[in-house]
Amino acid sequence: MACSVARERIPRLMAELSAGGMAAAVLCSRPSLRYYTGFAPPLVSSFSVQSPVLGACLLRRDEAPLLFLALELSETPFEEVPHELVVQYSLAVEETWPERLCARVGEQLQRLPAGKLGFEMRSCAAEFERRLEAQCPHLQFVPIEPVLARLRAIKDEDEVAAIREAVALADLGQEVIRGSARPGLCELELFEAARRAIDLRAGRRVAMIADLISGERTAESVGEPTTRQMAAGELLISDLGPHWLGYWGETCNTLTLGAPNPAQHRAFEALRDALGEGLAHLRPGVQAGEVDERMRKTLAAHGGSYFHHSGHGIGLLCHESPTVVPGCEMPLAAGMVVALEPGIYFPRHWGMRIKQVAVVTEHGGEPLSRFRHCLF
Amino acid sequence: MACSVARERIPRLMAELSAGGMAAAVLCSRPSLRYYTGFAPPLVSSFSVQSPVLGACLLRRDEAPLLFLALELSETPFEEVPHELVVQYSLAVEETWPERLCARVGEQLQRLPAGKLGFEMRSCAAEFERRLEAQCPHLQFVPIEPVLARLRAIKDEDEVAAIREAVALADLGQEVIRGSARPGLCELELFEAARRAIDLRAGRRVAMIADLISGERTAESVGEPTTRQMAAGELLISDLGPHWLGYWGETCNTLTLGAPNPAQHRAFEALRDALGEGLAHLRPGVQAGEVDERMRKTLAAHGGSYFHHSGHGIGLLCHESPTVVPGCEMPLAAGMVVALEPGIYFPRHWGMRIKQVAVVTEHGGEPLSRFRHCLF
User: Fold this and answer.
1) Within an 8 Å CB–CB cutoff, is residue B133 touching chain A?
2) Measured between CB atoms, does B50 come within 8 Å of chain A?
3) Which terminal CB of chain A, N or C, has fewer other CB atoms within 10 Å?
């Protein structure tokens, strides 16, 4: 399935680019390589943490796409687009890869007729772009990030499925944390337990962004897990964002260590109301800013507030459009995937946050998560 | 200490750049920010995985350096260089950060006299460079990666200390793996045990690159841990590379699950000999290629060989100069830090590798690792 989807996406992009006078484009960002070719190298590997470029895909009107990869990265199982290994294993592949990649892509670009070339200026190293431009004075390099972002905003079915899998990993982490949290453990121990379960479920290492904060740290809203020992009666915020096959998922929950007090209970119910209100308005045509406003108003009726966004799009980037913030006029559309995350914070005392990822549908947000937020 | 070291490094770089006709430079790569300012944001965070730039440091002859950071990243404890938070927390910081950073850096660049500006072309996004160039037609942007790499090749004392700490984390992981490895466990379970111990020792999440392969997979030399269950009599290669405060460390060991057979025992002794021979020649003036040759010859005398490099420099990059490969004429110098890693591989059957990080000294390589390679 993924294969045919990628092949539908390329003509869709080329049609857009043609309308802008471009007959070809070079893609090199991680999200674009995943979206248009299916290629999803790991986020953390000896190659990917230091190579200035992971690969490049050349798209041309009326010709097959060409993908250029380093051998190291081609180990990722991968079949969707014809590809060429630019660098066979060498004893110093990381040093020679950018030069060789430029040379190979440049050769192909030199065969193109004069005109505009779509290019990812933001994700491509300046050196790479300069070398290609120097090789191809007949081409005018045009940034295409806005077109790429617009085409990706509405998720295809296979993307929703991938995000659902990533969210399921986050949910598993939440279940483990809920089952393991107890006074005397430190934040890091709890985090390690969640991550171990996630990796074993996935069958491989899963890169993950995470906040895991307890006690007074919860008032700060975000933070990495530390060796801080958790005590009875304290709160714990766990916000887990695993990266799975190129897509991000997220779930956030807040727990009490022991039975919640009435104030904690009321705050948590207020968050659930705010989240429910937000989900109810994840409908086509509703502006993102309206979802934000309704969530904040619902919470304010309970006396709560938060200083961060109400939510954000999620997919190949962990934070992408639409941004659910005050005044955002972007209308939602069916198939957008959004993480909503209301919070309540009392500076230097405590804080709470819950988050759920959902798809925009005619009937409101359809959660991709099966985790039920719960305080204990 | 780190503070004064960073302040010595900046004049050293400026002297080099002055000799090349440059009165100022903009640094934006992760290694350069760490080296010249002490700033070491985490490798994996919601901000750092998707922002096209982590920050920028402007160095000027006869003026204080200026570092520009996003608020999110400034949470890293950090005092060494005067810095400015370009983006206070906003509801969409990731969207506005690159534009605002360019604007702030550009303002400062416009005040410079006409001439050459040192620039990191390879690590900087093309968009960022293009915007700055458009704002500053009086400046000629000059790539300075070769100068930066040369100055960093010989490590300062604080760097050796940092690498030693990173290596100690890798060593701890090896001890845990040695103590836990048993038939019936899968590779991932073993990896998780090592990582948990490393994170708890460090007191925070430690990013890590790792090979962890067992059985026939060892013949492939590298690979991520999987759910493959290990069986008695098999081999296990664990190559751990933690990233600690901006520096990489590495240790690799090979274990047998149970008592080694004579062939395994002989191969392992041959690897130790080759490593010992390599270490003995990590002396100033010796060419990297000679170290490579001596290691391969020693192993060949036992009937063994490997197809990968014999080693590589390590520090702010996990693979950097000098590359210990056949024919490399780069002379070693006191203070260089090198990982040596001889291996033996029998295609589709089994493989072994050991690795140790050492500093080049007059008396040969001084290991930064305390782990004693052992087969069981």
Assistant:
1) no
2) yes
3) N
Residue of chain B with shortest Cα separation from A209: B45
pLDDT of residue B62: 84
Is-contact B86 B102, C-beta < 8 A?
Answer: no
* Size (chain B), residues: 376
Interface of A with B in 187-216 (CB under 8 A): 188-189, 191-192, 195-196, 199-200, 203-205, 207-210
Quote the strand ranges of chain A, DSSP E. 22-27, 55-60, 63-70, 83-87, 115-119, 139-143, 207-214, 235-244, 247-248, 251-256, 311-313, 320-324, 337-340, 343-346, 350-353, 356-359, 366-367
Residue-level pLDDT at A2: 46
The neighbouring-strand residues paired with A141 are A117
Nearest CA in chain B to A223: B75
This prediction's pTM: 0.95
Query: A–B: how many Cβ contacts below 8 A?
Result: 148
What domains can you pick out in chain B, each with its CATH number? 2-152 (3.40.350.10), 157-367 (3.90.230.10)
pLDDT along chain A (376 residues), means of 10: 67 95 95 91 82 88 87 65 69 73 93 97 91 96 95 95 98 98 98 98 96 96 96 97 96 96 96 98 98 98 93 94 93 98 95 98 98 94
> Do β-strands A63-70 and A83-87 pair in parallel, antiparallel, or remain unpaired?
parallel
- Count of positions (residues) in chain A: 376
Q: Is the ipTM of this complex over 0.90?
A: yes
Query: Which of B43, B224, B243 minimises the CB distance to A204?
Result: B224
Do the beta carbons of residue A87 and residue A103 sit within 8 Å? no
Cβ of residue B179 closer than 8 Å to a chain A Cβ: no
Residues 78-117 on A with a CB inside 8 Å of B are: 89, 91-92, 94-95, 98
How far apart are alpha carbons B343 and B345 in whole angstroms?
A: 7
At B93 the pLDDT is 61
The residues of chain B scoring below 70 in pLDDT are 1-5, 73-80, 87-94
